Amino acid sequence: MLDFFFSPAFAQAAAPAQPNALVQFAPLVVLFVLFYFLLIRPQMKRSKETRQMIEKIAKGDEVVLAGGLAGKVVSIGEAFLTVEVAEGVNVKVQKSAVGSVLPKGTLKTL
What per-residue confidence (pLDDT) applies to 110? Predict the structure, then answer.
């Protein structure tokens, strides 16, 4: 009955062509590249800088810990540091708890 209104040849010709697979995945590739340069790469760089800072800590360095404590490194172990936060008060912390290394003499001026 529909053949009366539409010819079968016209209905077959109206079918859309399949887009190229590369065109379909291009937005995903662009999104991944953006994520890499805006999120992943800077985080890897920050992580590498933190790891290098922790490896270079030496006895006598002045550090600020993640909790806000500041002190001088008294001894260094494999995974832990002993930090003197006050005269005669030593705290043993993990190396990963070091937030930053201060310039020499910073704690004396505080």
Answer: 56
